[in-house]
Structure formats: structure tokens, C-alpha cells
Amino acid sequence: MPHDADVEKVVIVGSGPAGWTAAIYAARANLRPLVFAGRPKSSPTTILPGGQLMMTTEVENYPGFPHGVTGPKLMAYFEQQAVRFGTRIVTDNGLEPDVSNADDGHSYSYQDCARVDFSRRPFVVSSEDGTEFRAHSVIIATGATANWIGLPNEQRLARMGGGVSACAVCDGALPVFRDKVLAVVGGGDSAVEEATYLTKFASKVCMIHRRDQLRASKIMAQRAMSNPKIEILWNQVVVDVLGENMITGIRLKDTISGAESDLPVGGLFAAIGHTPATAFLEGQLELDAKKYIKLRDPYRSTTSVEGVFAAGDCVDSVYRQAITAAGMGCKAALDAERWLADKGIE
What proportion of the chain, given as a percentage, has pLDDT over 70? Predict the structure, then answer.
């Protein structure tokens, strides 16, 4: 497969830990990767380029930062490192060549990947403005978004570090949550796991569930109900999050009587699932029942289409951590580099 100078060697879709790590490795392999970093979106929730870390004020479990680092700053470091080695980014102004000194934001806007066509080779990856980029290989690293309740004050407090989170493993050990009454919204296995984890730090954990029994598996449900630090509030939904600079409580509504009540809490964790950002891949790649990308080999990053690789939370429904996503991004870049070499493209 001879290399056409007008065809990108590798296009990376996504700008979280997986996407930028893939870009760092691909750039250092002289593949000159092109990144679709994405544009901010609001659904009822906010989705930002950089992934879920952009909603995290303090990251204390990423190696190399003994005193912690903010999520946005960590992602800025990832991006600057990728660009330092020659990564290019699709923006409204074309291809941004260098943002290595942009510590405090950018003077440009990223573009989204609007569609892909993996039915022909080279592959075609199209931007929002209709520009088509041809690529020998593609790495999908679009991540997944946490399913929030969708309340305005919930989102505001989550963005400002006001005690609202969608990841107990990421944030539960922070000093702000220690020895507090914490609330977990959800009734599935993930909610039980989050609540159980939080009992290590909280004085008490209240699980808020809209039904009269948990959706979790029997063994997980029993684990929650037998934990003396977990209280399950049945038939309740959160209708408001209280607090100005820091959460002070949540307003609950009884799904049977309609009565409302306020519950004082020092933290709120949404554990109602995640949605992988893969809708644009329908009909292009094989997805599982929950719309996560299926890998041909669980130890690799290969997808159902040869030459297309995937990494991060759009694949991983289990761990969903920045460091595991970064590791998967490394694997995807190495897999892409070796695949290109096998095809005679270097």
C-alpha cells in the first residue's frame, strides 16, 4: 500500500487521556497524527474537549503529581506534549500547528468529527465544515459521558468542584468528602460499588433510588443492604441540588406520595451509568449492546475494521480511569504504527 502524501497516516478522533496519549506516541513515531479534539456541547449536561477530566477540579491519583493537579491542567499538559512532537489539531482556522505554550487556553476552536466512512480505503474522516480527510489508519478515542441527573445546580457545582461528582474512585478520597454524609444516586451494580467505596471515607452513605428494590445483582444488593454505613432511601428522586459554592444538601421527591424533603449532605455522586460517544460509528464499526466499541482481541486495540483502532472509555466500561485510558491510547498508537509498517507505510 504506497503512501499518498495527501493521505494522513493516522487520524485520532478524541482528546481525552486516550486520544492525547495516542497522539504523543504516534507523533514520536513520525506519523504526524491529526487530531479531531471535539467541540463543547450541552445536552442537558456539558461535554468538553478533554473528556471527563475537564469536570474534575482535583486529580490526586494520576502518577507523577504528588500534590495533585486539576483535570483541565492535566489535559493541557497532555495536549502540549502531543503538539511538541508534531501533532496537528483540526480547528475552525484549519490545522493548528503549535499550542505548546498555551497554558491558559486557546485562541481557536476545535472542530468535531462529523462522520467517518470506513467502507473505502483510504478511510474518510469528515469535519463539521465538510472538509474530508483521507487516512490510512484511524484511532477512535471519543470516550464516554457520565449520565448526570441533569439539574442546573448539579452541573454548576460539578464544574466548580462544589462537591458533586460522577466518579467515587476519582474523587471520593479528597479531603472535602471525608467524614461527611454522602449521597449516591443509582441502584445498579455501579451505584453499589461507588457507595461501598465511599464508606471508606464518609461517615455515612445514602443511596437514593427511584424504585423499591435495587437493580443491582443479588450479591451486590445484599452487600449494600448489609453495610452498616449505607442507608438506602427507596422510592426517591433528586429534584434539586442545594448549595451556592459547595453542596449543602439535596431535595428529594417521593415517587409514590409526591412529598418533597431536604437531605443535608456533604457530597453527591451520580452513579446512573455512562454513555459511550459512539453514535457516529453506527454502521461503521461493530458495537456491543451498550454501544461500546467491540475489540477483536481484548489485549489489543483492533476493531472490526482492519486499520481502525480504539482506546479509552469508548471501549472500557469497567475501569474508566484516566490512567487506564492513557495506557489504551499507547496501545492503539503502537498497534497503528505496526499495522502501517506491515503495509509499507512509514
Answer: 91
